[in-house]
Structure formats: C-alpha cells, structure tokens
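INFO  loader      accepted 1 record
INFO  loader      residues=477
INFO  predictor   begin
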Amino acid sequence: MTMEKLTASQVRTLFLFEHLDDAQVTWLVEHGHVERRAAGTPILTEGEPATCFFVLLEGTVALRRNVGGELVETNRTDHRGSYFGATQAYLEADIGSKTNYQMTVDSITDTVMFQLPADEFGPMVREWFPMAMHLLEGLFLGMQNNQRVLGQRERLLALGSLSAGLTHELNNPAAAAVRATAALRERVAGMRHKLAMLASGAIDPATLPSLVLLQENAVERVAKAPKLGPMQASDREDEVADWLEERGISGGWDLAPTLVAGGLDVEWLREAIEPCPGASIEAAVRWIAYTVETESLMNEIEDATTRVSTLVGAAKQYSQMDRAPFQVVDVHELLDSTLVMLNNKLGAGIEVVRSYDRSLPLISGYAAELNQVWTNLIDNAIAAMSGKGTLTIRTALDDGCAVVEITDTGTGIPAEIKERIFEPFFTTKAVGEGTGLGLDITWRIIVNKHHGDVRVDSVPGKTTFHIRIPLNPLKAQ
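INFO  predictor   done
INFO  writer      dumping tokens
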C-alpha cells in the first residue's frame, strides 16, 4: 500500500518547518506521510504509547485532558500547522521523557494531518538542533526537579502536621500514666503500712482471712463497675458517706468517691463488712478503699499504656515502617490508621461515620502512598468543614475494584474551579497554607501508579471524592 506523501514545497508551507534547509525538508518528505480521519473519530488517546507526531493540514481537532475521570476540552483548533501527539519525542529517554500521550485528540471535522514516527523524528531533531536540545532538556529537567522538590515539601509539611498531632495525642495518655503511677506508689506504701500493723498485732490476725476475701470480692466489683452519670454518682457517694458516718468511720466523705467509683454501694458494704467485729469495721473499710483505689489506678495505667501502644501501632501502620513498598493491604486498616493520625485535627466538632464493607477483599498496592491519598482527602475535608460537620468514609466492592468514598458536609467546590482542582499548584487555600500539590499527588498515586480513578461530586453541604482502585493494579495495566 502506497502512503500519501507531501512535496517539499508543501512541507515548507508549515510554519514549524519553514526555516529548515533542503536536506532537512527532504528527510521530512521521505519519513512522513499524510493521514486522514473522518469527523468524530479519535486521533490519539491520553495514556497510550506516544508513537506519532502530528501536524494539522486541514480540519478541526479538539484536545482533551482526563480530569477527575471526565474528559475536559482544553483547546479546539483549525489552525493549519498546529501540532500534537509525541511532542516530547526529542527528549533523551534517560532523563525521564514522557513515553505516553499527554492528552486525547479527536477529529471534530474530516481531518488531514502530516504524521511522523516519533522514534525517527525525535533523534533527528536532536541531531539538527543540538544547542536547542540542551536548553529544552535543561528547562524540562528544571521543571521536573522543581515539582519533585515541592512534592517532597508537601509530604514533609503533612508529616510535620501529623507529627505535631501525634505528639499531642501521645502526651495525654503518657501524662495520665505518670500521674496514676505516682498515686499508685503512695497507695502501695499505704498497703505496706497495713501489713506493718498486722505484724505488730494492731490488727487482729483472725480477721485477715475475712479481709482477704473482702479484697477479692472488691476487685471483682471494680472490674464490673458500671459507668455512672455525675448526678447518679453524687447520690451514691452521699449514701455511702452517710452510711460510713453512722458507723463512726472518720473521713467517710473522702472514702465514698473511691468506693463508688469501684462499683461498691451501701448494699454491698452492708453485706460484706457488717459481719466483721465492731472494732474491725473501719480497718476493713479502709483496706477495701486501698484495694479499690490501687485496682482503679492499675486500670488507668493499663488504659493509658494501651492508648499509647495503639497510637504507636497506628503510626507504624500509617508510615508502613519496615514493610515492603508494594504489598497486599487491608484498605480499612489504612483508613483507620490515617484517622488516628488526624484525630487531633478532627476535634470534637466533626463526627466521623465509618460505613465499611467488611467483605471487601485485600488489595495489592503501595500502602504508604495510599495513606498519603487518604491524608490529603481527609485533611481537605476537615478544612472545608471549618471544625464542624460530618465526615463519612464508605467502602465497597464494584466490578473488580475497591471503592473508597470520602464525603464531607463542608462548603463544597465551586463549579468554576471544579475542573482545575487536580492541576499542579492550584489551590484555594491562603498563601502559606497549601502548595496546591495535594490533589495532584492524589491523582498521580491513584491513576498513574495504581491504574485507578478519582472523581468528585460537589454541591454546597456535600462533597464526595470517589476513589476506585483495582484489586490487583498490575493486572489493570
């Protein structure tokens, strides 16, 4: 099949080639050919291998970019000589030149184009214009490096913010554990004092078995102690204090809160302690109070250290420390660890609703980078709600993909900027509050690295980001 060719004079009518010498024009004539497309047919598709360089001869074409899962028209032209396709074919492969089409181009009318193979055209341009290539490659590398540095800074800013929040979250249980430990030391010293009294005969040794039994019963009550409201606790404390005072036990008002907090009421005290000899009742009550308080303090220390351990575990899960970059992960674990890391930002005014599909299988992916996606989206949602609203996170399985939806009740995304939110460096935040790379990074992680999709629906009071990730991104390539 003979391909339609342009003549040298026809090539020179194109502004891109008008200043080339005869030998260069001859090369173009020999290596290029004419292509025709009917109206409404695609010429090239974003993401496919960039194999051809096109120059428009006749007709109208539309250039479109995939933004948020929608094809957005960025340009429409009928200008003769307009070029598109493998426009970076001249870059050396070893400096990271793009090998895929960066946009979709469709024929709006019947179209005639001059086409050159990228693998032949690129090397020839480098040979013809060596100095220009150095300048262009320097510009290209500079832009890449700038974006890389700013992307790293975006990650560091997020990490710094999360670290500050995590430090605050760790400080509370750690401080509680320190306080409880100090109080427990005092109570243990008191218990040693009671033992000294036993040894000296101040307490009748015959009462010791009864005291030990009381102690064991009290420990069981502490473990099952119900949570009381302020009014209910106050009423019970009054009852216990009155009961202690009636029996001549000094300091009953100080002992009552400890006993009530341990789940002990007047009925239990009456049944457990009244059978003791009269002289031993106060000793028994104080013995039980020490037991209840030490048990409560140990529970408090356990709760605090468990909280610290949970936070450290969440931080380790979030950072994926000591784990392979690409692994099989549970999306719910990643989401939960991110929420823990952002808990300080959520505050009391934002309600978090988890609507997880627990039948969702594990997925293969870059866990640390997926956590960065959740961080960017949840952090933006928190900012949009200004400290008050509902954050809903839903997961589902749909057509071989894990679906994660993050919805906030914030102000919404204005329609005029919705198509730009995934652009690098575009931000609606005040100067110094954002780099405009959060959603760009999100897009690149989900779409480019996991071969998934990111879309957004937004109206005032409800903004939802829809993230689709193939269960096995490697098979989705």
